[in-house]
Amino acid sequence: MKFTAEQIAGIIKGDIEGNKDVTVSGLSKIEEGQEGTLSFLANMKYEEHIYTTGASIAIVDRAFTPSKELPSSLTLIKVDDAYSCFAQLLEVYNEMRTKQPKIEQPSFIDENATIGKDVYVGAFAYIADGAEIGDNVKIYPNVYIGENVKIGAGTIINPGAAVYADCVVGENCLIHGGAIIGADGFGFAPDENGEFQKVPQIGNVVLEDNVEVGSNATIDRATLGSTILRRGVKLDNLVHLAHNVEVGRNSAMAAQVGVAGSAKIGENVMIGGQAGISGHIKIADRTKVVAQSGIPGNVKKPDQTLMGTPGIPIDDFKKSFFGFRKLPYILKKLRELEDKISNK
What we know:
By secondary structure, the protein is of the alpha/beta class. 16% of the residues lie in helices and 29% in strands. The chain has 5 helices and 40 strands. The strands form 6 sheets. The protein has a 12-stranded mixed sheet. Strands 9-12-15-18-21-26-29-32-35-38 form a 10-stranded parallel sheet, with no helix packed on it. A 9-stranded parallel sheet has the order 10-13-16-19-24-27-30-33-36, with no helix packed on it. A hairpin with a 4-residue loop joins strand 39 (305-307) and strand 40 (312-313). The mean pLDDT is 95.
């Protein structure tokens, strides 16, 4: 689909400098701009590229004044905030790419499932007995929705994801491809022969509204009760949350974070990639955990940034690391002192 500069300026309330009738059908970085694409300049570190870009339209701040001649093929749209306006256009573009309401075939919807209004169900999707699908939900191809699952209005579930039986997904959630919601928790007990016997996992997973789950993330169902992600939680790709974990509102975890069973994560917590959180602990609100850190015990004080394994306040870690880097020098000096003492 093509848009003119005039149409785009109308959406973002911008002023045109150049050809109002020029059209674009794609988006590009300013340094990689090609004819027929729309780009933007928000960070002046990239200003040099606007003088050589092949893009047909560029969104810039109103304060932008070219320091040299712009390409004759380039039309500017000036706005108050180029970055936020480009993000607004990305939202519009993304909405246009989403699937329209439709039930594709072949797909399977159990006769006892409830399907809301304006739902999209892709080919080879499976919706089981007792499932409840809200209005405006999009279920892409090869998605599995288990028995008695509830999916809130406006949620999007991307290809290859699975939501196991009895789990609850709130409104306006986004579940990316390959994510597994509600697989068994890692529950085993050794018998008298030392062989592991499986402990049935009969709880569920509850995602509240506006939760995002990254590709190939796994959220295990509770042994009893629920594994819970509160409103606004964001998980990156390959995150693993074990059984009975609870994550507070608006907390976020980067890729490859692992959280062991029954850990309780507070609100507005941020956890960097590959960090590990032990089970049965509590982490206070607004804690920040630096990537690859390990948290083996309770974090009682809020608003801390923790680093290392075990995680300690980041300023303490930096001081300790400085000492560690000096350790070869310190050992050398210690040996020299020992030699002096022994030679007296």
